[in-house]
Amino acid sequence: MNAQTALDQVSTQGKFIRKDSVFRDWVNKAEGSRFKPEANRYALYVSKACPWANRCLHFLSLKGLEHAIDVYSVHPTWGDTKPQVDGHRGWHFAEEGANVPGVTTDGLNGCKTMRDLYDLAVKGVWDKSAFTTPVLWCKQEATIVNNESSEICRMLNSEFEDVARNKGVDLYPPELADKVKELERWVYNDINNGVYKCGFATSQGAYEEASAALFAALDRVEEILGGTRYLAGDSLTGVDVWLFNTLVRFDPVYVVYFKTCKRTISSYHNITNYIRDLYQTRGLGKDVDMWNIRTHYFTSHPKLNPYGIVPVMPDGVDYAAAHDRATREYSSSKRT
Ligand SMILES: N[C@@H](CCC(=O)N[C@@H](CS)C(=O)NCC(=O)O)C(=O)O
After folding, report:
1. Which one of the listed residues 42, 50, 138, 198 is annotated catalytic?
2. What's phi and psi for 70, nearest 5 deg?
3. Which residue's C-alpha comes closest to atom 8 of ligand 1?
4. In the chain, what are the domains?
5. pLDDT digits over 211-226, tens only?
6. 148 labeled binding residue
7. Which atom of ligand 1 is nearest to the CA of 131?
8. Which residues of 81-100 are buried (b: 16+ CB within 10 A; e: fewer)?
9. Which of 57, 166, 258, 275 has the smallest C-beta neighbourhood within 10 Å, fewest atoms?
10. Catalytic position from the list 45, 118, 196, 230
11. Whole-number Å distance between alpha carbons of 268 and 250
12. Low-confidence ranges of the chain (pLDDT < 70)
């Protein structure tokens, strides 16, 4: 049995190498498609702590799909999943009757853990990789359609248009496709996954390399945001949602936990204001659950934090504070 978590995905040089997600089917409208976009046919399993799952929740709300796809969310602290079989620790759902903020039971399938859900999906024992969130679940076939957040985001953006309340919202507009794709490449490698490369590295060299790439990328973001309101220009795109989910966790968690301490995000003027803008003006704040976020990281990996102590929240993190993004002049607009 190969019951892994992301913490096990480390090379012999101590580099964190994330494994590819395994379930890669698509919901689409095409004739003969196995998974058609229909209201009440799919569920999204998330952890509110998980940046990958959280970005799917943001797409769900930006597109106005909450009424059509139900959401189940796991407890932030990993626990034993099959103690009689192996030592794996992973995501659990809330116990019946427990009242944990932002956490639910698996009201759909009655699973106790995400591992049980993966077993249910394959109607046996899932032994190929970690039991990760997010999961897009098909109720009709009782299986996982997809467990790769970048793809779930794209499906939510474009495939559920007929049932979406916010029709016409397009976070991947065709005219920005190349630009967004190029931004996603380095935002994913150096920032979204970059913080994990710092935090899960097991050698000094691997950590320093990841840290250098991370802060070079953040400097680049700071510069871009001096010129435009969003990463790809004047409109919010998917890559902003990706970046936002790492940024909101940065000072409250990663600076301490993943040793991404060369600079804090609050020391970057444009990035700080950009987070506040997305949090408030674009409504992404509604799906940011700081208790789940901080509890998860600090209490789930005994290897990294043996006593599970959650450090005091640093001063100066205030995503609800006023921002200057709507009123400032951008160098891109000056040029036009
Ligand atoms: N490629 C996946 C990565 C998802 C992922 O790593 N999720 C983490 C939580 S942040 C997880 O569920 N980890 C469980 C584990 O490693 O066992 C995606 O983007 O959807």
Report:
1. 50
2. -85, 155
3. 132
4. 6-158 (3.40.30.10), 174-335 (1.20.1050.10)
5. 999 999 999 999 999 9
6. yes
7. 17
8. bbeeeeebbbbbbbeeeeeb
9. 166
10. 196
11. 12
12. 1-2, 333-336
